[in-house]
Amino acid sequence: MTSVDSRTPAESAESAENARPDQPSVAAPWWTTAVVYQVYPRSFADSDGDGVGDLGGVRAKLGYLAELGVDAIWLSPVYPSPQHDNGYDIRDYQDIDPVFGSLAEFDLLLAEAHELGLKIVMDLVVNHTSDEHPWFVESRSSLDNPKRDWYWWRQPGADGAEPNGWGSAFSGPAWTLDPTTDEYYLHLFAKQQPDLNWENPEVRQAVYTMMNWWLDRGVDGFRMDVINFIAKQPELVSGPQAATDGGSPMGAQIHDYLQEMHRAVFAGRTGEHLTVGEMPGVSIDDAVLFTDAARAEVDMIFQFEHVSLDQGAHKFDPLPRRLPPLKQSLARWQDGLAETGWNSLYLNNHDQPRLVSRFGNDDEFRYESATLWALVLHLHRGTPYIYQGEEIGMTNVRFESIEHYRDIESLNHYREAVEQFDQSPASVLAGVHAMGRDNARTPMQWDDSAHAGFSTATPWLAVNPNYPRINVAADRDAPRSVFAFYQRLIALRHADPVVALGDFELIEPDHEQLYAFTRSRNGQMLLVLANASDEPLTVQGEWLPDDISGAELVLGNYRGDGSAALRPWDARLYRF
Ligand code: TEU
Fold this sequence. Notes:
Helices cover about 30% and strands about 15% of the residues. By secondary structure, the protein is α/β, with parallel strands linked by helices. The protein has three domains: about 30-130 and about 200-485, TIM Barrel (Alpha-Beta Barrel), CATH 3.20.20.80; about 135-185, Oligo-1,6-glucosidase, domain 2 (Alpha-Beta Complex); about 500-575, Golgi alpha-mannosidase II (Immunoglobulin-like, Sandwich). The strands form four sheets. Strands 9-8-7-3-2-1-11-10 form an eight-stranded parallel sheet, covered by helices on one side. The protein has a five-stranded antiparallel sheet with strand order 12-13-14-18-16. It starts with 8 loop residues before the first helix and ends with a strand. It binds 1-O-alpha-D-glucopyranosyl-D-fructose (TEU). The site of 1-O-alpha-D-glucopyranosyl-D-fructose has 14 residues, from loops.
């Protein structure tokens, strides 16, 4: 977040480069050359031997992250929480859950990270609280409690039914009847995650006060959980049986709320902050508004289009994956935010299956396909996010029974599908194997010792059984190291303005195997050629520069013989 400069990254950089010595120059925002690493603390490193990762574990691994070369760490929630949704259900916004450590330890982490030049970005979960948050405890206690209106309460519909037909993201209705007052409250996620009523100005002020408290403590920004849902569509909360089921709950006031938040929290601050809003279901046009620097809302958003393409009628019923829709989708977002706004770039996070299993070949070509997707993603224009374990090519897990899973979304889905809809347990489990969030949440694989070096105790979620083969120590010793490849990509973004800011152009959008694009700026051009398939591929086309054989191969995932034919999952970056 830069409150002093309201020009687009492109405009700022342009003027910085063209500036004569006698003119003041303004650099592009710091995050145009930055790479962010997401830590999911539960699963990262356990320092006190209770089987759950913690802040001590993050502190112990700061050197590892500095060596990787990232600029900032996004920390998934570490606040006090009953942990129904692994901390995305917060009981107290201004403390640290004892399972993760203490505020004093958080301050140490922050100081040590800053010492190493690493920023810390907190997870801001303010669409909902835990049902154990004192605000909700008060709100539910009586119809005339002063905090009643801090949440969405509605009277039962006809025959005592839910106020409307909206469903929760974690199965079942989005409304739960509270016996204390015989009214329903709204929860877009689990019933232990009641939605805050942002129409109430007291709620908004309480959140801004809390955000300022963290920034004053020294944190460097916020990743904002489902932030576009804080504004609700009117029919969601006051309509009859909603005809909007399956649509987005986002309401039009969202821009007002984000601008107000910016004024109340960021406007007066100097220094380098980051705001990234997680926003399921938004369009490119929406994104331009959210990330237009002149509007002062957020720096960038996480959009979901490219990770929804393989979802059929239901998330757990994946469709066959094809390359053209994926690259065309990402290219549309590149084009849409080229002039105004900024993209964030991700294929993985704590909610998504592992990229090498989803989009690559996690068996025969694990190294090649992990590095192919790394190269492709990091050469797009935007701020790349790396999710823990991605940098060593960690894969999905296939536990043989639902008992081994912990994620509330998968468990609720399994119960509903098997018990209510009579689906076969084996087929439901297959969906969880492919799409379940625990794929991303198995403990970080540090080495081949017991529990993968994550903990000395039995971990809260079992380690992926492939850890003796796939782990940080083995990857770093290997001649072909995924980690080393990420290091080079990160260094490249820091050093090369074409990578950070160059124009993007997709080539051969309909090709089923080839992922090719150029980046260009000030007469320089980079070309990415990638074969996203198990079969060799001969690249042809009028667009292929004549002088390719003489071009500099900046980075590739095979030892180069300079041949024109791309081997399986061959990925190359050329400079002209
Ligand atoms: O996720 C919001 C979201 O829309 C989805 O990605 C969600 O995780 C689900 O998988 C939909 O199928 C955010 C957090 O990232 C997620 O971990 C939380 O569970 C959720 O919000 C509620 O806070």
